[in-house]
Amino acid sequence: MTDQNDKSASQARASRDDRLKSALRENLKRRKMQARERAASTDPSQNDDGSLDEGAAGKTGN
Question: Which end of the chain is more exposed for a tag (fewer CB within 10 A), N or C?
Answer without folding.
Answer: C
